[in-house]
Amino acid sequence: MKDKWLVIVGVVAIVVGGLGLVFLSVVPNALYSTSSNRRSAQINPGNGPGMMGRGMMNDGGMMNGGGMMGSGGMMNGGGMMNGGGMMGGNFSAQPTPVAPSGGSSSSSSNASSSSSASSSVAPSRGRGMMGGGGPVGGLTAVDSSGKAILAPAGSNLPENTATQKVRDLNVTIALTPYPPASFQTGTFLVTLVDDKGQAVTDAQVVLDLTMPSMWMPVNKPTAQNIGGGKYQATALWTMRGGWRIEVIVTRGSDKYSAFFDVGL
What we know:
CATH class of the domain at 137-263: Mainly Beta
Shape: rod-shaped
């Protein structure tokens, strides 16, 4: 009888010991796994709306997608310093597609369509602050609204010279160097002749240089009377683009304005 109870106690001890081993092996692993998951949730925020996920520096944030420095932002796509902005030009169009080489007839047709599309998507140079654009030179007499005034019949003028008549005064301007260039000093030679063909030597002449497409600081050099009805001034061309030169002539109580357009 005593031996029977010893056997039963031994079996129970073995079962309890086995259950204890299972408990000791399973429960700590489960606790560790739960703790690891909690820690990973704290330190791995993923691509959420945080500072470096979808937030400040990624998809739609400050430095990538549509933000300050990204595709449509201040310094890239259509923003202040590149695309169509202040210092770029008008580079808002997509690059010209390039057809793959060595393709079949379908590739050739794709190339043809790409070629025809390139004319519509090729970037142009706008009249931004430093982007320039438009024809260079083209000195033309205009009215105050910018409408071209035809040169007098038979006036065979050099390309750097234009003239127009304002009431009883003929105003002619010549630019050197020509065509003018941005950030270079230009010389403006104004010649005044009355309607009788006599040189006007008693006038005061001031130039007013502006850009019709944008605001510019005041640039109004005074021309010096160098004799023979000629008045000369110098001024710095500061930006590329289309410029308007107003020649302001004061003679006694009379005041005249002649306008000329030129491109840099």
